[in-house]
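Let's sit down with a protein and look at its sequence and fold side by side. Go ahead whenever you are ready, and we will take it from there.
>
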Amino acid sequence: MTLAKIVYATNTGNTEGISEILEDAFEDIGVDVERVDADDAEADFYEDADICVLATYTDGDGELPFDLEDLHEELPDEDLSGKIYGVVGSGDSELYPDYFCHAAVAFDEAFAKTGAKKAAETVKIENEADDEDEEVLKAFVKALVEAAE
């Protein structure tokens, strides 16, 4: 059975909510899921996953969340060849127009160095996911699963 692993970092709860939508979408199509908070994720977390997902917010002026800094630094050293990845970001384009979802872009670049295959464009969500975003997230999950088959 296909295993998807999701790491998420949240400050306001928006990204945790997004990670729950992702988890439900994977489960709805029969994929096993393990979802963990960034505090509990080590660089080797994705080692036995078929699909690697990271959901993050961007802190302040384009900074990574503190609890994801180590993972971001160590991830490019992991060999994730043969795995599929996708990244989701949440942000506030009004408050931080120059840094909207910057952390998600940074993780996309880090995953690209692991040998994993990007199977869907990075999803950028304005603050909390709404119904339209939920449909985008379901399509994102579907693309990841199809690429892993």
Observations:
- The first strand starts at residue 3 and ends at 8.
- The mean pLDDT is 96.
- The radius of gyration is 14 Å.
